[in-house]
Design goal:
Helix content is 67%, strand content 0%. With 159 residues, the protein is mainly alpha-helical. The chain folds into two domains: 65 residues; 76 residues, Arc Repressor Mutant, subunit A (Orthogonal Bundle), CATH 1.10.10. Helix 1 runs parallel beside helix 4. It is globular, with a radius of gyration of 17 Å. The termini are far apart.
Amino acid sequence: MDSGSLPSLNLHEFYRLSLLLTGEKERAEELLVGTLVDGGDRLEEIRDPVHRSVWLASRLRQGALRYGPLEPVQPRLLREGEGAAGVLQIEAYILVRRFQMLPEPERMALALFYLQMFSMEQIAELLEMTLEKLARTLESARLALKAAVEDAGAPASVV
């Protein structure tokens, strides 16, 4: 695949998607690079930038599913003097870990929605669901994250 076929892809956004789906820098890099290398010929064949992006997001999702669930990691304890900044770091950590533990398709739907990579119609097509089911899926994921944040003692407005 020559580099001339990639400018219509926002690789930074696809890296962020890979990171959200895998939860680890090394896995995200491996997933994105492997997907681009393996799918290079197909990416060159797809002329429409939207279809190219949908195809790539779909392949990233399939690749991320092969990694399986993430192992839960315990949050670090606050050190003396960290105060509010340390609490915010732990709240963000809890939110990220809870996001990583969302089941499919909630995790992918929420990632695509918040990264604003695709329209709602495109997300529904990518996940092979109706717009109504997508709306329910997004609401379910949002409520799960909200509950995790509230359980951690953070304000619900964070989600």
